[in-house]
Design a protein that fits this description.
Two copies of one chain form a homodimer. Chain A is mainly alpha-helical and about 180 residues long. The first copy, chain A, has helices at about 5-30, 35-40, 45-50, 55-90, 95-105, 105-115, 120-135, 145-160, 170-180.
């Protein structure tokens, strides 16, 4: 086996990621066979599975990457940024929307999913606790209720964007602002 | 061909509906083969397709039925009723959540979908226009923005419920109330 540089491995890993995203988006998790993954990545199954131990690990690595990017946008630009992010860039939504369906009957996978990106989760919780203590958002509801509500909105926006329904960005921002405003 | 009574036909139609719902929920639209539809309904393909011209028509009839029931709950019990309906009864959500994925790349299907249940859509729009003119909900945003927002919430609740995430019914009702309250 030839020794490959770290840089080369990183580039190959990105190539697997990009091709796998196309395959999962077009065919869903189950429909994206190893043959289709080979075709979309331009790499052999041996090469693909030297970067990810299984198709599930590859899929979850994509999903975790999407989740981290979403949390980064949220921390940098607030929830309005999240709404704009979903409205502007639909390519990742096919993978995102396959996750809940896969979690439904698999509690082990659900536990694994909930443990993703704990640092980001923690920073978001701190951010919202700070907004509450500053009086910028309501404090008559527990943070968990607000987090749940915003999570529901993200998933709903993802469904509509993936279905080709135009998102009313400014209207949604205004309605969320009112929902969270101090009462 | 023996002549069958209207009552018998209606009962058979319900049998097809119930079996097809199970098949679509377990295997998705593409995965629910005609053989699986036969197994779940306990009827031959000849019988099934005497009630619905195609698998797509059968699927859309289920989806239209779900949409009509959702609109009925909304008209009878308000949006709080819709939230409770989604939280209480997840069996129909697998079909509901397959629709946006199918609409994504099929503009003909999207047009057909948008023309579903126009009477219910019309009554809901009238209801919300009435709430605006009574001052019960805000009138600084167009009705379309409010309708879009509530549609996003419904889809997001459906995703989370289908994934097995417990829905915070009372928190969601309170946050929606604040979002729509006159400003």
């Amino acid at each position: 086996v030839p020794k490959v540089s770290e840089e080369h491995r990183e580039e190959r890993r990105r190539q697997v990621f990009a091709g796998a995203r196309r395959a999962f988006a077009r065919h869903g998790y189950e429909g994206a066979t190893v043959t289709l993954l080979e075709r979309e990545t331009g790499l052999s199954r041996g090469a693909i599975f030297s970067y990810f131990p299984s198709k599930l690990d590859l899929f979850l690595a994509l999903a975790e990457d999407d989740q981290r990017r979403l949390a980064t946008v949220w921390l940098d630009d607030g929830f309005a940024g999240v709404i704009r992010h979903i409205a502007a860039d639909p390519d990742w939504l096919a993978v995102y929307l396959d996750v809940p369906r896969m979690l439904r009957n698999d509690s082990e996978l659900r536990t694994r999913w909930e443990a993703f990106n704990p640092d980001m989760q923690h920073r978001l919780e701190e951010r919202f606790a700070g907004l509450q203590s500053l009086g910028a958002i309501r404090d008559d509801l527990p943070l968990a209720a607000i987090g749940h509500f915003l999570g529901v909105l993200i998933d709903g926006l993802a469904v509509q964007q993936a279905a080709g329904v135009p998102i009313d960005v400014e209207g949604t921002i205004e309605l969320v602002r009112s929902a969270l405003a101090p009462q």
